[in-house]
Amino acid sequence: MSGLIALLGSGEYLPIMDDVDRYLLANCGAVGRKPRVVCLPTAAGREGEASVARWSRMGVEHFTRLGADVQAVSVIDAESANDLDHASVVEDADLIYFSGGDPGYLYRTMKDSLVWKAAQNAWARGATYAGCSAGAMILGREIPDFRSMGLRSIAAFGLVPVAFVMPHFDAIPLLGKPLVSALRGRLKPGEIMIGVDEDTAIVGKLNEEWTVLGKSKAHVFTKDESKSYAAGEKISLGM
After folding, report:
1. What is the rounded distance in angstroms from the CA atom of residue 99 to the CA atom of residue 165?
2. Sheet harboring 164-166: ordered strands across?
3. What is the pLDDT of residues 115-171, one digit of tens each?
4. What pLDDT score was predicted for residue 149?
5. Is residue 235 helix, strand or coil?
6. Which of 33, 64, 87, 172 has the most CB atoms less than 10 A away?
7. H or E segment and range at residue 113
8. DSSP string of 8-21?
């Protein structure tokens, strides 16, 4: 992947993320034309037609307002994830945006699908990946099982060199703090996990520094140490 990656803690398609999304549109490889944006409501695929339609409508309205050529593609299950027409649209995109929902369902639906292969082809030529909440979590090594308080997890794509991506980090209630401790306890020497606050993103490329954008902070944890980074500050993810 040579394009930008944006991992968002929350706030997809909302005005509070306008500056972040304008940055993504300005750096997605579109030259001399409107950027082509594809919004994928896949993580909400089990929430019903109304939820899928709402995420799709929000994405189209948001990026149209920001001056992009945008369409929502209804990839909501294994069948639609292997639709050739859907894959073609995704491969031609400059910005591929996954909104939030169920990270495990998103991973299972995308894994080995034509749409996911198309997305990887797009990134390889320089398109941008944006994943909010569930869309961010699938790029880590594993997705925590929240019901087990982090003691178990499922495999994820491992495209970003972090063990776990934790969105909505500043909104985790006090009762959720043992989850964070459990995940840190599972880190191996040299591994990190990241937490991204709501209405905040970290944006960067593999093998380069990342930048915190948005309202609040991002947090990097090793087994024994942690550090927080404010908007505008740079983060190294170890590669």
Report:
1. 15
2. 164-166, 193-196, 217-221, 226-230
3. 999 999 999 999 999 999 999 999 999 998 766 555 678 899 999 999 999 999 999
4. 57
5. strand
6. 87
7. none
8. ESS-TTSGGGHHHH
**Banded pLDDT at 75 (limits 50, 70, 90):** very high
Q: How far is it between the farthest Cα atoms of the chain?
A: 50
Which helix (H) or strand (E) is 149 found in, with range? none
Tokens of 22: 């304008």
Which H/E stretch holds residue 87? Answer: helix 84-91
Q: DSSP per residue over 186-213, as a string?
A: TPPTT--EEEE-TTEEEEE-TTS-EEEE
DSSP secondary-structure letter at 125? T
Tally the domains of the chain. 1
Mean pLDDT of the chain: 93
20 with 63: CB under 8 angstroms? no
pTM: 0.94
CA 178/CA 59 separation, integer angstroms: 34
DSSP characters for 35-51? Answer: PEEEEE-GGGTTS-HHH
Q: Residue 53 sits in a domain of what CATH number?
A: 3.40.50.880
Contact yes or no for 13/199 (Cβ under 8 A): no
pLDDT digits (tens, 9 = 90+) for 180-214: 888 998 898 989 999 999 999 999 999 899 999 99
Q: Which of 98, 102, 91 is nearest to 75 (CA)?
A: 98
For residue 36, the one-letter residue type is: R
| The two three-digit tokens of residue 50, written as one number | 């109304």
Q: CB neighbours (10 Å) of residue 124?
A: 11
